Give the backbone structure.
Amino acid sequence: MNNQDLQRWQELDREHFLHPFTDHRELAARGTRVITRAEGAWLWDATGHRLLDAMSGLWCVNLGYGRQELVAAATQQLQSLPYYNSFFQCTHPPAIELAAELCAIAPPGFNRVFFTNSGSEANDTVIRLVRYYWSLLGKPDRQLIIARRNAYHGSTVGAASLSGMPWMHAQAGLPIPGILHIEEPYWFGQTDIEDPEAFGRHVAGQLAAAIENAGADKVAAFIAEPVQGAGGAIMPPASYWPEIQRICDHYGILLVADEVITGFGRLGQWFGSQHFGIRPDLMSFAKGVTCGYQPLGGVMVGDRVAEVLVAQGGEFFHGFTYSGHPVACAVARANLRILREEQIIAQLQDRLIPAFARRWQKLGTHPLVGEARSVGLIGALELVSNKSGRQRFPKALKAGERCRDFCIEQGLVMRAVGDTMIVAPPFILDEAQLDELVDKAWRALDLTQQALGVAAGA
Ligand code: PXG
């Protein structure tokens, strides 16, 4: 690769490639980083700069890059049956086997899977399924789906409507009708209530209030991520999920866990719901199911819904050309096999998660960090101008963005959501890489502090 290649790619990219979630005028001014190669937890860009990928791609490449078993599974499937659909009474072995394997690892009561190609499509499927479920039960008025502000459930029209991001809604006349948002359990960023547990109960109580307000006979479901990812790695207080579960049970509404980020080991269990003791009726998934090597998503459909759908349903008018694509399913099967056979999730619990948590906590002693929190292999740092109190920097200073840029300079991919820095590292880091992650993050925090002119120990 030479400089001419890089320049050409950057020019062609600027001229022809519209990127997702991107301000193109700003991108043209800043230029793009062209990623050309990856191995294990490492990425290389076209200039040869090496980066430790502490975001696992985009919360998905959990086993790291270059797993030959996944490559082989895709290649073999491409050779034997690269495509066939599962409409019109047809099916094929990779989707059948994967569906059964997913049900075997899911919590009890999950015995059916609907396949999609992404997390967004999975959550659109959720909207269709829960509304159809209630109409099959003779309650077509139960249409309302309650979600949360600052949730991210995807970017198709339905999933963006479930997402609680007003700037997404504003550009497209969303949300679609019948979707309501309540407050998120973001203690650090949202509240004057000092006790996190009291805050957790307080925000969970908003679900009961919203149901009462709408009338319980109008509410179909509540959907939430066990841990909000794109919204800023928001980890609810321990009091939150039990109270949400109690409220859903009390009113008989369906509980949907969006497991797109938290599924397949990220929290040290197969599903994030198991970590929090949540008993969802539906679980959407994507990302980690194939390690990101192929696009695949879906909805795990619990017995409560599946039995109505199967026993009473007519045709469910929904599906995609690539629902259960054989190559994606073959890769997912190989991925699940590695997770099972190498006992990766048990090892995360025993070794990597505690080792990560210990190091991550240390970042909390940095003068710029108001809170360092982690759960499983998700970490967040709240950048503050003053450690006592939760005082933020003025937005215009772009503290988070600067810190992220310093991370990249240091050779570390860490994401900024406003002034919250987040990581979701791959499951294959060794101790030296964990140390490197934290050392580089610390150095980037130092550089950010210097750039912002904050006195040490402020
Ligand atoms: N649900 C959750 C919880 C997600 O995190 C989706 C659904 C949508 O999945 P698809 O496959 O349609 O993208 C996601 C996606 C970020 C970021 O900035 C996060 C996602 C996507 C893009 C950016 O952290 N998560």
